[in-house]
UniProtKB/TrEMBL annotation:
<feature type="signal peptide">
    <location>
        <begin position="1"/>
        <end position="20"/>
    </location>
</feature>
<keyword id="KW-0732">Signal</keyword>
<dbReference type="GO" id="GO:0030599">
    <property type="term" value="F:pectinesterase activity"/>
</dbReference>
<dbReference type="InterPro" id="IPR035513">
    <property type="entry name" value="Invertase/methylesterase_inhib"/>
</dbReference>
<dbReference type="InterPro" id="IPR051955">
    <property type="entry name" value="PME_Inhibitor"/>
</dbReference>
<keyword id="KW-0325">Glycoprotein</keyword>
<protein>
    <recommendedName>
        <fullName>pectinesterase</fullName>
        <ecNumber>3.1.1.11</ecNumber>
    </recommendedName>
</protein>
<dbReference type="InterPro" id="IPR006501">
    <property type="entry name" value="Pectinesterase_inhib_dom"/>
</dbReference>
<feature type="domain" description="Pectinesterase inhibitor">
    <location>
        <begin position="26"/>
        <end position="171"/>
    </location>
</feature>
<comment type="function">
    <text>Acts in the modification of cell walls via demethylesterification of cell wall pectin.</text>
</comment>
<dbReference type="Pfam" id="PF04043">
    <property type="entry name" value="PMEI"/>
</dbReference>
<keyword id="KW-1015">Disulfide bond</keyword>
<dbReference type="GO" id="GO:0004857">
    <property type="term" value="F:enzyme inhibitor activity"/>
</dbReference>
Amino acid sequence: MASITIFFISLIVLLPPNSAIHPPSSNSNLIQQACKATRYQQLCESSLTRYPNANANQIIQSALNISYASLRLAQSMAQSILKASAGNPSRTTAANSCIQHLANSEQRLKSTVEALPRGEMKNGRAWTSAGLAYQYDCWSALKYVNDTEMVTETMLFLDRLIGKTSNALSLMMAYDVFGEKMASWGPPKTERDGFWERGGSWGDGKRLGVPAGLKADMTVCKGGGCIIRDSAGGGERGAGSG
């Protein structure tokens, strides 16, 4: 029964959007608001407008559909490079590496699709992040053998795939952190921006961050003017410049 369930979940991911559906203007407004949470907003909006999206959950599902469909096409393109690389050991090796990386990415995205219906958003984010890394690994493998038009076109396609997967991951993070009210979603931020997520289900729920009230316990010497006391009883010694 479990295998049948996974099979139908995979079918849902592979279903293409209905080209006859023309989303209303309210749908466009939702997409614009959601895509503010991504790094590639224009790509996000242009991709999602082909799908009917009524809420945050549907937008995330559509973003994953888009990423997965593009991944399958990227796998086909990598296979074509391999077939065209007979007699070229370097390109053959790169193509095989790319194919393996994309297979790994596919497994991670499938794990995401299985995790989200169970409410495991953080697990889904982890799987998607891993899938994104494997897509970049494929692109990186090909950049060393980028000597044909076929490889160049595949790398350009992979670049867009990476952007689509990154967008799906950003949407998942926004939902996980701010909830389904997309009005609170905004551009991605990290600890460098002073943003810290709250602790997960295993934590106490307190907001993370750099502890307040810390006192300096070290001195950076310039010009060798510091005296360092050896706590092991070795006396004092001068510090060099640092």
